[in-house]
Design brief:
heterodimer, A: alpha/beta, Rossmann fold, GMP Synthetase, Chain A, domain 3, 11 helices, 23 strands, about 30% helix, B: alpha+beta, VC0802-like, 2 domains, seven-stranded antiparallel β-sheet, 5 helices, binds zinc ion
């Protein structure tokens, strides 16, 4: 089923019209209400009158995660707090989280987008939807929850974890749809194998997976193990949460709800738009959001856009599965980790030099992070216990900041490969 | 009486010890005693060489983490109970030992001791007429 056929199957001209009208209104609103946007536009010599259609989008200034973080907690909210009905925050580990606020209209706009996404995935009113995304500050759980209710399907708001219970409810309630991270889906699949439960004894039909990068191979594995169709859903809390885009049953790219979020692809170096169909950094402008409207928000995700009509009948532009990041952010067990954080922790410790290598592996379904640190002369001791204490201290400092467990390994100086004077910081062995 | 021992950090991977001994041999530096302390991840080579300062410079130049550590070398008569007697003395005098290892030459057993406080250890052993090897003698071995 197509939830909103008028929009999802609109002609390009009609979509441009909607986008232009909403963009013009948004630019006017932020220019007049938010000193920060006004300043940014004035610096570029822009007034709202310069934005006459969606074609003028690329004239506008960018916003970044740093802009949001600098206004922690509520500085980016553009409506009085009395109009904010919900607050979410990102799970980032770089200092302060990114906080987002939703008005009542934002929540219903978000629900509409998630409902469209569920329909794209082939979910209908008679489905029993088990939501195993975390509920809470993270947008995954509540985002899918409201969209499912809006569709009229039945929600099982079980949240993440407690795998035995997840499986028990799948059996007892006859869940037909599973929503969670792809790695958790694999974890559940392995638990089923261990418990000798055949996926055919369950009614699961569709899985809607997101919140972390995953590969086509992982999709094949999940589909083979759970006997379901695995659908990729995309979103980020800054834009709205899950449901910014989602695959349809064709599994040929994620349809972007572009009447609310206009996507662009830019070259992350030059910041210029790339040629149509080229890979670059994904940038979104929200054109209906009230709580925190964002103009040209840089997602740092690398992908490309496909404007051809999809076999499913929708004309909404599709984005390919993300191919990586334009910054160095890593997602390890759902937590955002920046190598630069690790560097600053090591720099703060007088005993260490910031020569390190991050090695990320996937053991079974669990990501592991190993940090190799070069043993420099100034902190080399010929006593084992001293070096072990140092290892423990580094481990403790890293873990308390990153929030995930870390293995620390001391290595000989200059063994970490340096390319053109710069060390290669990350080896990601996960097959994503 | 203070001996300078060369200590080298080694990752637990094959060939690293060969590399160290090769570098020293090339420079004509002799090794008279050594031990390796290891964990599952790394090891520490502790070695008595004929020219500690030069050995240190050579290894550092080759990017090894190395240092010189002060140790003493106790000469024990090669007879039952000799080591126990020496250890009793140290323990009674409150000398804390970080690590030790032994090597023997002809009739005597020599024990390299790394005490927490080197001078205190030398004083205690001297007081009890225990024989310590001179650095110049040990380096010549
Ligand atoms: Zn489609």
């Amino acid at each position: 089923m197509i939830w909103n056929e008028k929009i999802e199957c609109a002609s390009r001209d009609f979509m441009n019209e909607i986008q232009s009208e909403r963009l013009i209104a948004t630019v006017k609103r932020v220019y007049h209400n938010i000193p920060y946007y006004r300043k940014k536009m004035q610096e570029k010599g822009l007034t709202p009158d310069d934005i006459k259609s969606v074609a003028d989008l690329s004239k506008l200034p960018f916003t970044t995660k740093t802009d949001l973080r600098d206004s922690y907690p509520f500085g980016s909210f553009t409506v009085p707090m009395s109009e904010i009905v919900r607050i979410h925050a990102s799970s980032g580990t770089t200092g302060r989280p990114t906080v987002v606020g939703y008005t009542r209209n934002d929540i219903s706009m978000w629900s509409e987008n998630v409902t469209r996404a569920l329909c794209m995935a082939g979910v209908h009113q008679n489905d029993m939807v088990q939501i195993a995304y975390g509920y809470g500050l993270f947008t995954g759980g509540l985002g899918l929850h409201y969209g499912t209710e809006n569709l009229g399907a039945s929600v099982i708001p079980i949240s993440g974890g407690n795998t035995k219970k997840q499986i028990q409810l799948m059996q007892d309630f006859g869940s037909t749809v599973l929503c969670c991270t792809p790695s958790y889906a694999l974890y559940i699949a392995e638990a089923l194998e261990e418990m000798n439960i055949s996926p055919d004894s369950l009614k699961l039909r569709v899985g809607i997976f997101g919140a972390e990068p995953w590969s086509e191979n992982m999709r094949k594995e999940i589909e083979a193990k759970l006997h379901i169709k695995a659908i990729d859903i995309y979103g980020l809390s800054e834009i709205v949460g899950p449901g910014v885009s989602c695959e349809c049953e064709e599994q040929a790219g994620m349809h972007v709800n572009e009447d609310h979020f206009i996507p662009e692809i830019i070259n992350p170096e030059t910041l210029e738009p790339v040629a149509p169909g080229e890979v670059g950094e994904l940038v979104f402008s929200t054109i209906t959001k009230e709580g925190i409207p964002l103009l040209r928000y840089r997602t740092r995700d690398l992908t490309r856009l496909i404007y051809d009509k999809c076999k499913c009948g929708r004309t909404l532009v599709r984005m390919e599965k993300c191919k990586g990041r334009s910054d160095d952010m890593l997602i390890i067990r759902g937590v955002n980790v920046f190598p630069s954080q690790i560097e600053s922790i090591l720099l703060e410790m007088s005993e260490t030099e910031p020569h390190y290598l991050l090695i990320i592996d996937r053991e079974g379904t669990l990501d592991t992070l190993k940090v190799q640190v070069e043993v420099q002369e100034q902190f080399f001791s010929d006593e084992i216990k001293e070096l072990q204490n140092l290892t423990k201290k580094i481990k403790h400092n890293l873990e308390s900041t990153l929030g995930i467990s870390v293995t620390v390994q001391l290595v000989e100086p200059k063994t970490i490969e340096r390319t053109a004077g710069k060390a290669k910081r990350v080896i990601d062995n996960r097959q994503i | 009486m203070i001996i300078k021992q060369l200590s080298v950090f080694l990752e637990n991977k094959s060939g690293r010890l060969n590399e160290v001994s090769g570098l020293l041999a090339e420079a004509g530096i002799n090794m008279s005693a050594f031990s390796i302390a290891d964990t599952s991840d790394f090891g520490i080579l502790r070695v008595i060489v004929s020219d500690p300062e030069r050995a240190l410079a050579i290894l550092r130049e080759k990017q090894f983490s190395a240092s010189l550590t002060e140790v003493v070398c106790l000469i024990c008569p090669n007879e039952p109970g000799a080591l126990a007697r020496a250890l009793d003395i140290l323990s009674n005098e409150g000398i804390q030992i970080e690590y030790m290892y032994a090597f023997s030459i002809e009739k005597s057993a020599n024990i390299i001791i790394r005490p927490a406080n080197v001078q205190k250890c030398i004083n205690a052993l001297n007081m009890h007429q225990m024989e310590l090897m001179k650095a110049s003698d040990l380096y010549k071995l």
